[in-house]
Design goal:
Domain RNase H type-1: 1-128
Organism: Candidatus Enterococcus moelleringii
CATH architecture: 2-Layer Sandwich
Mean pLDDT: 96
Pfam family, one: RVT_3
Helix content: 40-55%
Protein name: Ribonuclease HI family protein
InterPro entries: RNase_H-like, RNaseH-like_sf, RNaseH_domain, RNaseH_sf
Largest sheet: 5 strands, mixed
Structural class: alpha/beta
CATH class: Alpha Beta
Low-confidence stretches: none
Shape: globular
Number of strands: 5
Length: 133
């Protein structure tokens, strides 16, 4: 089973965001931090989740059971329920619906910020990268 922790950090004044992903697989960790184009936190959280899923596919890990954790209740709710009234989030939901079918088992779960410190730290690094662009 693969555990994936995702998070995003946003600087609202500068409209910059960064994402962070911590992947735990067979007691090995992969840490990713990256700038995001999204200007608001909810979109950035969704983008970080999609980045994680694309990474898993690119590394041919879709045949394993995946537990994906995020501290964004909004992002998890949108993807779990498969609907959103906000047009900004629709592209993420559409992509999620296409990608999620490729996984043997994909479970999304909200966790409190206190349990997501690794991904939070990486997201802040991603934000710093974004601010330098």
């Amino acid at each position: 089973m693969i555990k994936v922790y995702t998070d995003a950090a946003t600087n609202a004044q500068q409209k910059k965001s960064g994402g962070g992903i911590l992947i735990v697989n067979d007691n090995q960790q992969t840490q990713l931090s990256f700038p995001l184009e999204e200007e608001d936190n909810h979109s950035a959280e969704l983008a970080a989740i999609m980045y994680a899923l694309r990474y898993l596919l690119e590394n041919q890990l879709e045949n394993q059971n995946v537990l994906l954790y995020s501290d964004s209740k909004t992002a998890i709710k949108i993807l779990d329920q498969g609907q959103t009234k906000n047009n900004r989030f629709s592209p993420y939901l559409t992509e999620f619906n296409e990608i999620s079918e490729k996984f043997t088992l994909l479970v999304l779960q909200w966790i409190p910020e206190s349990k997501n410190k690794g991904a939070d730290h990486l997201a802040r690094q991603g934000l710093q990268k974004s601010l330098k662009l």
